[in-house]
Amino acid sequence: HIHGETDEWGHRSVRDKVNHYDYHATLLRLFGLDHDHLNYKRGGRVQSLIDGQPARVVEEIMA
After folding, report:
1. How do residues 3-56 score in pLDDT, each as one tens digit?
2. Distance CA 44, CA 2 (A)
3. What number of CA atoms fall less than 13 Å from residue 4's CA on the CB side?
4. How far apart are CA 48 and CA 5, in angstroms?
5. Would you state the pLDDT for residue 49?
6. What burial class does residue 35 get, using C-beta atoms within 10 Å of its C-beta: 0-12 exposed, 13-18 middle, 19+ buried?
7. Going by C-beta distance under 8 Å and a sequence separation of 6 or more, which residues neighbour residue 1?
8. Which of 29, 35, 40, 52 is deepest in the core (most CB within 10 A)?
9. Residue 21, SS3 per DSSP
């Protein structure tokens, strides 16, 4: 399976970009967890596994 496309040198993504937060959200979905609602407390502050960054589940790579 091929997802996305890079420039002619394979240096930069030019189509269907996916960042590491997207991969984390996708893995969490595969584990049956919702990345938007998975939070924990540390040092009195609420934290999330994706550090509060915008992320999407990459449905195109899921079988």
Report:
1. 788 889 988 888 888 888 999 999 999 999 999 888 889 999 988 888 878 999
2. 43
3. 15
4. 30
5. 82
6. buried
7. 61
8. 35
9. helix
Structure tokens at 12: 């930069």
The dihedral of CA 45, 24, 60, 18: what is its sign? positive
What was the pLDDT predicted at 56?
92
Q: What is the pLDDT of residue 1?
A: 60
Q: Which amino acid, residue 63?
A: A
What are the structural domain ranges in the chain? 5-61
d(CA 29, CA 55): 12
Are 59 and 52 within 8 A, CB to CB?
A: no
What are the structure tokens assigned to 37, written together?
């609602």
Give the pLDDT confidence score for residue 44 in this predicted structure.
93
